Amino acid sequence: MAFIKLYRTKLQENYHFLDDLFKTRNIEWGVVSKLLCGNIIYLKELIALGTTEIHDSRISNLKKIKKLNPSIQTVYIKPPAKLSIKRIVEFADVSFNTEIYTIKLLSEEASKQNKIHKIIIMIEMGDLREGVMGEELIQFYGEVLEQPNIEVRGIGTNLNCLSGVMPTQDKLIQLSLYKQLIEAKFNVQIPWVSGGTSVAIPLILKNARPMAVNHFRIGEALFFGKDLFTGETIENMHNDVFKLYAEIIEITQKPNVPDGELGENVAGNSFSIANIDDLSGTSLRAILDIGLLDMQPQYLEVEDENITIVDASSDMLVVDITNSENNYNVGDLISFKLKYMGALHLLSSDYIEKFVV
Fold first, then answer.
1. What digits encode the pLDDT tens for the residues 192-244?
2. Alanine racemase N-terminal domain: from which residue to which, for each copy (predicted)?
3. Is residue 144 within 8 Å of residue 100, measured between CB atoms?
4. CA distances, 77 to each of 56, 101, 204, 288 (Å)
5. Is residue 199 a contact partner of residue 221, using CB atoms and an 8 Å limit?
6. Beta strand pairing call for 73-76 and 94-97
7. Do 104 and 181 belong to one domain?
C-alpha cells in the first residue's frame, strides 16, 4: 500500500514563519489550498493553523471549507465559468475576474442571493495567462463600478504560472502604479494589491517589495518551503511537510537491458541505453506498489540517495537499489520527498491513503 504522510509540526513551523514574515511587513495573505484537493483531513489541519483566508480553484473545495468553518474568507482564484456562477457566489466570498460579461453574471446572482460579492481584477503583466490588458484597465474598472452587489476588493496579477515570467521589483512597482491610477481617476480606495504567489517571497525577504503591494496568495512555500528563484529551501523552513511511502512488492536481480523487439511503453516512451553504463550487466531492482495512475516519477525524490528511479508503468514503479546500503526486503517501505506537482498528483488520487503525523 502506498500512502502520504503530512507532518503537522513542520507544517505549523512553516506557517508561523510565513505569518511572522508577512505581519511584520503589514502584508495580508491567504493560504492556497488547491494542493490538498479537498481532502478533509488536511483541510482541518490547515484551518487549525489559524488561517482566516483560504484560496482555491475548485468550488467543491471552498464549499468544504465553508462547512468546516463559515467564518473563513474564501477566494476563488481563477476567472469564473458561467455554469459555476451560482455556486461561486454561494461559497466564494471573493473571486478573480477579467471579463465584464462574467462580472455582470456575478452581479445578477449576488442580487438574487442578497449578497455583496467581492472581486479582484486581475491584470496582465507579461506571463500571458489571465488578466485585463493594462491599456484597457480604466475603461474596465469604470464598467465594473456600474454593477450592483459587486465590490472591488483589489487588483492583482499572476506571474510565473504559465510563461515563467518572474515577479521582479519593476513588475510590482508597475502593479502599484495601476492602483494609484485607478484611485486617482475614480476617487476610490483599493484595499488589496495582490502581488502574486510563493514565487514573490524572495523579494519580500529582501525587502524589495513596493509598500503598496500588500497581499499575497501562498501555497507552495507553505508546503515545501521553496525559494522559486533559486530552487533551494528557504532558510528556517521545511521542504518535507509531505512524504510519500511506497511498499516493495518484488526484489529481483535483472538485466540492465530489455530482451526482445522494442516499441513504445504504456506512457509512450521508448527504451534508451544512453544512461546505462554496463549493457551486459545486471542490477538489483525493486518494484513498488505505485504507478503512473497516481504519480509522475520526475516529481519524486527518493530519500535514500543511493536508489535511482528506473521507470514506471500504470500501477508499478521500478527502482534500482543496487548501490543502497540498506538491506531492503519485500514488504519494506521506501520514502520519497515530493515536488509540488508530485504532491498534486498524489493528493488528487483516491488510491493513495492520507495520514497526519
1. 999 999 999 999 999 999 999 999 999 999 999 999 999 999 999 999 999 99
2. 101-225
3. yes
4. 6, 18, 22, 36
5. no
6. parallel
7. yes
262 shares a domain with 216? no
The residues that are catalytic are 34
Q: What dihedral angle (degrees, nearest 10) is formed by the CA atoms of 10, 342, 282, 263?
A: 180
β-strands 53-56, 28-32: how paired? Answer: parallel
| CA-based nearest residue to 60, from 29, 82, 90 | 90
Residues 161, 301, single domain; the answer is: no
Q: What is the domain range of residue 184?
A: 8-224
CB atoms within 10 A of CB 268: 6
Cα–Cα distance list, 181 to 26, 211, 216, 244 (Å): 22, 16, 21, 48
Asked whether residue 249 falls in the same domain as residue 332, the answer is yes
69 shares its domain with 165: yes
CATH number of the domain bearing residue 292: 2.40.30
Q: What cell does 273 get?
A: 541505453
User: What is the tally of structural domains in the chain?
Assistant: 2
- Mean pLDDT for 328-338 is 98
Alpha carbon distance 29, 217 (integer Å) = 6
Q: Give just the sign of the alpha carbon dihedral 177, 180, 186, 189.
A: positive
Determine which helix (DSSP H) or strand (DSSP E) holds 74, and give its type and residue range. Answer: strand 73-76
Q: Is the pLDDT of residue 262 over 80?
A: no
Please indicate, yes or no, whether residues 18 and 67 belong to a single structural domain of this protein. yes
In a domain, residue 30? The reply is yes
- Name residues whose C-beta falls within 8 Å of residue 20's C-beta, 6 or more positions apart in sequence: none
